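EI: anyone free to look at a 361-residue chain?
SC: sure, send it
EI:
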Amino acid sequence: MRLLSRHIFGEFMRIFLTILIGILIVYLCMDFLQKADNFIKSKANIRQVLFYFLYGIPTMASFSLPIAALIAALLSLGNLSRHNEIIAMRASGVSLFGIIAPVVLGGVLISGFGFVNNEFIMPVYTARANFIKNVEIEKKQQRAVFQERKLWLRGPDNSIANIDLVTPDRNEMLGISIFKMNPDYSVRERITAKSLLWENGAWRLKQGRKYLISSDSTRSEPVDGEIFNIVDSPADLGMIAKSSGEMNFTELWDYVNRLKMSGYKAARYEVDLHNKIAFPLSSLLMVLIATPLSIQKVRSGGFGKGIAFAVLIAFAYWALMSIGTALGRSGALPPLQGAWLANVLFASASLYILYKMQKTN
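SC: here you go
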């Protein structure tokens, strides 16, 4: 990388990191003020609060990366434009691509980090933050353990339940195996069922069998409609079952496929699955959007107009992404199209503007 390119790249990354840290600080302060009352009521100690917000930083960073990349591109290239450095570079034979390439490279790296964060860091840290909030601070009982993508849950009457799949509406659990224990932890009864369905205010076993185990024999009998209230209501599964944010791409892919094989619509989770790739690319798109607006000649408020227009485009991107996500989740658009709608439109527009700028310069 040439000295000039290193200078542009370094300036872009310096501004990006400064803006990102500033956004995170503001985000943390606002989040703390919103949740301070709950922490005080729950008598949370300083360590719990500190680690809760520490584990929440990857999630905050995920949403902050694109806007930080946008502002960094505006300021870094905008400063060059205002001081006529771009004109000097063009006069000395530096191509337009040579000027913007270091900033685009920075956008690629930021998008790459966004994907790594969403795939490997954020799911783990989100789960830890939820554990601190639900178990340590709010003193809710930890009843669930995930092992090999299956859910193990402590139930009533000294029982343990193994669940293959929780449906998106949280009203049914599929692939049920229940083990009821004696005081010495030997199994006295085993139940297998196709599902556990929330029906008439209770969890009822469907298409199952009960195996009663004694010292010298095992007796089997069908169970259908028998109540087994493993949790009080479907709302309680919200804390037990993993959300999309707690799953990485592979886990969410597996969950979507198992939902489809079980005959359930998985549009909401399919959109979230595609967003795990589409959303990190928004940082690169913000850089591409900001670039042609930043390197224009400074005249009659051009730079200020460029910033205002870029911010307007950024909000338009978030709005279009939200619309695409909503349409995908509702089934009005296929999940893939809903997740990628904003990216495709804005990438096309940005590349077209850059192409026209290259031709006119």
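EI: The mean pLDDT is 88.
SC: 👍
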